Amino acid sequence: MLTSDKIVIVTGAARGIGKVIAVEFAKNGSDVVVADVDSAGLDAVVTEIEKQGRQGLAQVTDITDKAQCEHLVDIALEKFGRIDVLINNAGITRDNLFLRMDEREWDAVITVNLKGTFNCCKAVVKPMMKQRQGRIINIASVVGMMGNAGQSNYAASKAGIIGLTKSLAKELACRQILVNAVAPGYIETEMTKNLPQNVIDTFMSIIPLKRAGTAGDVANACLFLASPLSDYVTGQVIQTDGGMIM
Ligand SMILES: NC(=O)c1ccc[n+]([C@@H]2O[C@H](COP(=O)([O-])OP(=O)(O)OC[C@H]3O[C@@H](n4cnc5c(N)ncnc54)[C@H](O)[C@@H]3O)[C@@H](O)[C@H]2O)c1
């Protein structure tokens, strides 16, 4: 098992990629604190985690709220005594062409994706520094590397996450805290299920592996980045995109 006896926090874990990450970590021997705004979804994930014989803890958390992120970390520390891995996965889209994009659409995406990641990193960094070990894995997107028409807000938030990842990796390496990002390509989830067919066709035409990614593909990269296999890896962006951008 890749992550035996690790204590892991996963945000945005009520469904989609975050849910699969949480369950895969449990399968690999971890206890998982799951955070999301969707309380019912969280309870279902905890049931799945417990089916793997591991402990799950649901904490309703809006990552845009600094105090709620601090509370999430406090609750995890209270229950498990330490936090080995934080996976910043929660994210949203509010797609629109730039000319039509209003300030609310811009702010919503930057606030959840970028500020929310900042809030959770901020809450977990001090305990990890005290532990003198930890892993932070930020879920970015290939869109943050290549841009995407209709997603200037989302691309900016994900590019920001990559910059945050690299800067934190430099600041925290001396405490043995490794900070990396995973940049998924086109993954079939609720987030992408309503994309127009022409957008999906365009994605498929530029994916050399000729299939959409799965949440499991993203979870596998996270497992690698949380495991001893990546002890010498920090400040990196691992693309799980079937070769979409090289
Ligand atoms: N699906 C893709 O193709 C794809 C590609 C690249 C990157 N990503 C990224 O992967 C991550 C997960 O995406 P997904 O496809 O599973 O999306 P999803 O919409 O299925 O799940 C996102 C989860 O985040 C939660 N969430 C939203 N706002 C929140 C908040 N303020 N506080 C706490 N939780 C909140 C939602 O309730 C939901 O459970 C996101 O960061 C997304 O940007 C997805």
SSE pattern: EHEHEHEHEHHEHHE
Overall pLDDT metric: 97
How many helices in DSSP terms?
A: 8
Q: How large, in whole angstroms, is the Cα Rg?
A: 17 Å
Major beta sheet, specifics? Answer: 7 strands, parallel
CATH superfamily: NAD(P)-binding Rossmann-like Domain
- The first-to-last residue Cα distance is 30 Å
Topology record:
Layout: E1 7-11, H1 16-27, E2 31-36, H2 39-51, E3 56-60, H3 66-80, E4 85-88, H4 103-131, E5 134-139, H5 143-146, H6 152-172, E6 177-184, H7 197-205, H8 215-226, E7 237-240
Parallel strand pairs: 1-2, 1-4, 2-3, 4-5, 5-6, 6-7
Helix pairs in contact: 1-2, 1-8, 3-4, 4-6
Bound molecules: nicotinamide-adenine-dinucleotide.
Nicotinamide-adenine-dinucleotide (NAD) is lined by residues 11-12, 14-18, 36-38, 41, 61-64, 89-92, 112, 116, 139, 141, 184, 186-187, 189-192.
Can you characterise this structure?
With 246 residues, this protein is of the alpha/beta class. The protein has a single domain, classed as Rossmann fold (3-Layer(aba) Sandwich), CATH 3.40.50.720. The protein is built from 8 helices and 7 strands. It has a 7-stranded parallel β-sheet, sandwiched between helices. Helix 4 links the parallel strand 4 and strand 5. Helix 1 runs parallel beside helix 2, helix 3 runs parallel beside helix 4 and helix 4 packs parallel to helix 6. The two termini are 30 Å apart. Bound molecules: nicotinamide-adenine-dinucleotide (NAD). Nicotinamide-adenine-dinucleotide (NAD) binds next to helix 1 and helix 4.
